[in-house]
# Entry
Amino acid sequence: MTAVKVEDCKKCERLVKFRTKIALEKKLCHQDEEYWGKPVPSFGAQEAPLLICGLAPAAHGGNRTGRMFTGDRSGDFLYEALYRHGYANRPDSKNSGDGLILKEVYITAVVRCAPPDNKPLPEERDACMQFLRRELLEMKNLKTILALGSFAYDALWKLRNDPPFTNDPAAEKTSPSAKPKFRHGLEVALGNEINMVCSYHPSQRNVFTKLLTKEMFDDILLRCRSMSSREESAKIGAVQKSDP
Ligand code: SF4
# Structure
């Protein structure tokens, strides 16, 4: 059976209705634009060692532009940081035709359709994980995953006993490990020398309230860069840096 292309997926009735409604109604300041209004594909270099995973596209951000983290405040914060750290050729991301090129990083989200109030239902998350699973398997050089927020962390933790994090899913399932509590800066060894780093989500609210600052995010990206080298990943090995 041929795998469904993410852009063609209509599995979640509630989200299909929502993304289409938003695309027709539009925000006043974007009335002249054509909204994407479909599931948003991942963006960047799939052969990269670093994967950044968020929650879902924003109704007037990715759902408008058709590119992950593009067209909203979270994206402004993220792409500016990626540019500072040499992962992007420009400091902003306006639309899919702006010439932005990412280097050594691939950007995705757990859920590919914009959800009402940025809150997907558990069954919508579970349905959409098929795309994350598939992409993880396709990322042959993956070393580090940056989970933006607890939603992404929880979803990735659920996949820890599956490839590419293990070569023997049956054996892993018989030895469950305790889940560390989400916190900014948490590092988790997922397996097969692939590590996860957690950050607060760069949402407008988190940035405005300074729960997440540029300096904090710079530190996270430096750690991602360091962990993405083969030597560093090996050093972390099975060590799980969790809450004290
Ligand atoms: S959220 Fe995911 S599974 Fe649901 S319709 Fe969108 S692309 Fe399909």
The chain has nine helices and six strands. Residues 143 and 229 are 8 Å apart (CA to CA). The chain has one domain: 11-236. Residues 6, 9-12, 15-16, 39, 111-113, 124, 127-128 surround iron/sulfur cluster (CB under 6 Å).
